[in-house]
Design a protein that fits this description.
Jelly Rolls, 7-stranded antiparallel sheet, alpha+beta, dioxygenase activity, Phytanoyl-CoA dioxygenase family protein, 24% strand, 13 strands, 7 helices
Length: 274
C-alpha cells in the first residue's frame, strides 16, 4: 500500500528519519535565539483549551509575523514569570517560514514539495508555521481538534506537517491521533467575529469519540503528516524534558480561503509555495 493510500485510510502518516538531526538542532537553536532576543511589550498567553481562548490583537495580527506566546502556567499570581523567559514560551507563530532564513530553509525542501504532491495537493501554499516548545513541567495539554477548524478552505485542503525536533514520549506530551477520524467531517470553524475578536461556528454538534485515540511516540527527526480533518491532541508535559516540535500547515491554492478565517496575511505578503 502506498503512503497516499495509508494517508487516505487513517488520516495521518508517521515518517521516521525524515529530517536529519543536524537540521532539527539548527531549527531548535534558531528558535531559542529568537526567544532570547524577545523583549515582551505585549504578553499574549496561548490558551490550549481552544474553547476558552481569548483572541487579542497581538494574536489576530500574527498571520504574517513572528510572535511569541506564553504558557498559561508561566506566570505567578503577581504577574511575574515563575521561571526564565526561555522556559516560559509556549510557541512562536505564524510566519517564520517566510520571515526567517533558517526556518525557510527547513520548510522549503524538495522532499516536502514532493510529499505534498504525492498526497494530492495541486498548488501547495505554505500558510502557517508554529514552533512549539512544550516546556518541562508546564507544557500544557492541547485538546482534541481538527486543523481545518482554524485553516478552513472550500473544499477542505489543509495539510499539517509536524516535525519532532526532540523525542516525543507519553511523559513529555506526544501527539495522539484518532485513526480514520478524518472521515467524521468538520465539527466547527474558528472565525473572526463581525464585532471584533473571534468565535467558533458550529458545523456539526455530533461529538468526536473520546475513545480510540492512539499515542504517536516518535523519535527526533520524525515527520507526522496530519489530514486537516483528523482529530488529534497532545497531553501535558509532566516530565523534566522539553518536547520541541515544528508544525507547518499547507493549503491548496486552487481552493477558496474565506475572508473570515482568523489567520489573514497582508496583500503584500501572500502565502507562497515551496
Amino acid at each position: 500500500m502506498s503512503r497516499a493510500d495509508d494517508f487516505e485510510r487513517q488520516g495521518f502518516l508517521v515518517l521516521p528519519d525524515f529530517v536529519p538531526a543536524a537540521a532539527c538542532d539548527a531549527l531548535k537553536a534558531r528558535a531559542e535565539q529568537l526567544v532570547e532576543g524577545f523583549e515582551p511589550e505585549t504578553v499574549s498567553i496561548f490558551t490550549t483549551h481552544e474553547q476558552t481562548r481569548t483572541s487579542d490583537a497581538y494574536f489576530l495580527s500574527s498571520g504574517d509575523q513572528i510572535r511569541f506566546f506564553f504558557e498559561e502556567n508561566a506566570f505567578a499570581p503577581d504577574g511575574s514569570l515563575r521561571q526564565a523567559k526561555a522556559l516560559s514560551i509556549n510557541k512562536l507563530g505564524h510566519a517564520m517560514h517566510d520571515l526567517d532564513p533558517v526556518f525557510e530553509r527547513f520548510s522549503r525542501t524538495p522532499e516536502l514539495a514532493a510529499l505534498a504532491t504525492e498526497l494530492g495537493v495541486r498548488k501547495p501554499l505554505l500558510l502557517q508555521s508554529m514552533y512549539i516548545f512544550k516546556q518541562p513541567h508546564i507544557g500544557g495539554e492541547v485538546n482534541s481538534h481538527q486543523d481545518s477548524t482554524f485553516l478552513y478552505t472550500e473544499p477542505y485542503t489543509c495539510l499539517g506537517f509536524w516535525f519532532a525536533l526532540e523525542d516525543a514520549t507519553l511523559e513529555n506530551g506526544c501527539l495522539w491521533a484518532l485513526p480514520g477520524g478524518h472521515t467524521l467531517g468538520l465539527k466547527k470553524r474558528f472565525v473572526r467575529a463581525p464585532g471584533g475578536g473571534t468565535a467558533f461556528q458550529v458545523l456539526d454538534s455530533t461529538p468526536v469519540p473520546e475513545e480510540g485515540f492512539v499515542p504517536l511516540e516518535v523519535k527526533k527527526g520524525t515527520l507526522v503528516v496530519l489530514h486537516g480533518l483528523l482529530p488529534h491532541k497532545s497531553g501535558a508535559n509532566t516530565s523534566p524534558k522539553s518536547r520541541h516540535a515544528y508544525s507547518l500547515h499547507l493549503i491548496d491554492g486552487t481552493a477558496t480561503y474565506p475572508e473570515d478565517n482568523w489567520l489573514q496575511r497582508a496583500p503584500s505578503m501572500p502565502a507562497r509555495g515551496f
